[in-house]
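re: ur question from yesterday

yeah so i grabbed the chain u mentioned. its 384 aa long if i counted rite. heres the sequnce exactly as i have it in my notes:
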Amino acid sequence: MLTALLVFAAGFVIRPLGSIFLGHMGDRIGRAKTLKVTIFLMSISSILTGLLPTYTHIGIAAPVFLIICRLIQGFCIGGEFAGSMIYLSESSHDKYRGLVSSMTNNGSNIGVLIAVIACSVMSNVLDHDSLISYGWRVLFISGGGLGILGLWLRRDLAESETFVKLQQNIKEKYFPLSYIISHQRERMLKIILLLFISACGSYTLMGFISTYLNQFLGVSFHQAYQMQMLFIILSLLILPVFAYLSDRIGRRSVLLFSTIGYILFTVPTFWYLQYVQAWWVLLPLVIFYSAEQAVTPVIMVEMFPGKGRYTGISIAYNICMALVGGFSPAVNTWTIQYFNNNLMIAYYVLGCATISSIIALKYLPNEYGLQSNLMLAENCTANT
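ran it thru and got these structure tokens back, copy pasting raw so excuse formatting
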């Protein structure tokens, strides 16, 4: 299982490199054009994964090609996810920026929900041999097909007004990577640390929870998938509420509610889960996860000036997702085995929440997030 989780993590290792290349594209030629490129390449790599020959047919080349496809996906997501957050934040009305930008995370969660449902259906419809033989291929190929549909939906995507204004106010050509390394290193470090709980929540809680329930608590895959699906569905409903709230009272209050809630409730929740494996036991974590996911996209955009924004946010975001998120399933699996303690996952979440809470308390002012679109545009032009 550790080997499989490390292959999963391989896609995260390449993310920072993708964020440099695609971030440069996003800052120079536009957000919309870059987002069309990323979704196309991700879709093709998913389809190719589903068509790969097996080890029986081509030997060691099979896992090598699998990792290459995974690396292509990771490279593309290095510019895709942060880019979509930036695009939505820059394109939305100031009164609803938090709500609109939060749809990036909700859209991702819908994708995870579809994947979990698909896995659950396939595991129930097909026997083990059929699932190993061709069932998994259907999932990857159909996922690539959904990506092609997404590309079609993005065909007429126009550039954000904020990006257009920024381009008009930059009089000289600049190299985004060089600029952010020279002028925005500290800001990027703050974003990386602030996102610890976001990376942990996405890949330790929502992503890894079904594996944790099955492998370490003895819950059947069917029940584990059901609990994971309920986790995601509840988050889809709760997240917009916190996003809307952040547009009224500011991002800092919502984020601190989340991180402090994690600090207080994570260990008791996972301790109780050892004895009662029911969906409602996870409800506190669903609430805190939803609150954090609601505000982190817009916080990143509002923290970072317009010049080099795509590159800077993409690099910071993907470094954190790679280190804290992508390796979290493998790290949690190893630590649980090494210490023979199922609560190690709770300590991991607790540590990440503590770091993010400190950064939020120290660097986010009380009124943070109550900016107008004009202020966001000035944030773009004032740093050229």
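noticed a couple things. DSSP finds 20 helices and no strands in the chain. also The domain at 2-158+183-381 is CATH 1.20.1250.20 (Growth Hormone; Chain: A;).
anyway ttyl
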